[in-house]
Amino acid sequence: MSRQSLENLLQTAGNPVKLLRNSQLGAYVYPVVPSEYSNWRDEQRAWRESAVLFDQSHHMAELTVTGPDALKLMSYTTINSFNNFTPNKAKQMVPCSYDGYVIGDGILFHLGPNELLFVGRAQEKAWVFRTQKRRNPATGAEYLWLTRATLQVNYFYFYCVDEDFGPFFIKFCSYFPYGAKLCINGNHWAQRQAEKAGIGFTPLDNAFAAVDDVPALQAICDSLGEDHIRALLAKWLRILPYPFTEDDTAAGYR
């Protein structure tokens, strides 16, 4: 049997969304495919010379789109209008199928010229509190009891760029007790402090390739502490949408 191309498969199916949703592969088991299908050489060649169509929506919540036709692609695949959608703006995006049915929604960030980031709702495991029915052995009366458990819940990510810390993100859990996590990169903070101090350096993605004054940079790195991180969090909680009222805050909710 000859190998079928991706284009032929799409033409036969008629609709890629139906093709994926009606897949007979059964339940996905992460990481979905074995780490090595045949051998390393064939896999590397496949990345360069072939294409693949597969559903990653069950565990991936971010999609980066770059290129001169990035906005055109979004306009073809969503119900949105992108008039006046300039860099440093964000909007709710609603993708739809070829037949016009809504697939879902998320937030589209216009990061820069020809660069978009679509962020959907991510489900992750979290420690939560759930209610459990219990029965009093003496009276037989039922009552509710709070228990700690792990649960797959929706998280909402906010991707931000700070003057001192550079890019970072905060993720909020949508389930009680509504925890949050702040994720920063200390290297980005150190680079910005070195620039302010006039220290020359050659940056890498997550390191310094060369530095004019190593002791001075080491002192900067050593100075990063809890107070800096708390100040960053307090600053951005004032900027981002805040779910609590003044009475909630006065009562101790954070």
Q: Can you describe this structure?
A:
The chain is built from eight helices and ten strands. It is an alpha+beta fold. It has three domains: 60 residues, no CATH class; 59 residues, 2-Layer Sandwich (Alpha-Beta Plaits), CATH 3.30.70; 96 residues, no CATH class. Strand 6 and strand 7 form a beta hairpin. The longest helix is centred in the C-terminal third of the chain and has 14 residues. It starts with 5 loop residues before the first helix and ends with a helix. About 4% of the residues have low confidence.
The largest pleated sheet is described as:
4 strands, antiparallel
- Taken as a percent bin, the fraction of beta residues is 25-35%
* Domain unit count: 3
Order of helices and strands: HHHEHEEEEEEEHEEHHH
What's the shape? extended
Helix content: 25-40%
Rg is 24 Å
Strand order of the largest sheet: 1-4-3-2
Strands, total number = 10
Poorly predicted runs: 26-34
Structural class: alpha+beta
Oligomer: single chain
Counting DSSP H or I runs of 4 or more residues, the number of helices is 8
Nearest-integer average pLDDT: 81
Q: What is the terminal-to-terminal distance?
A: 62 Å
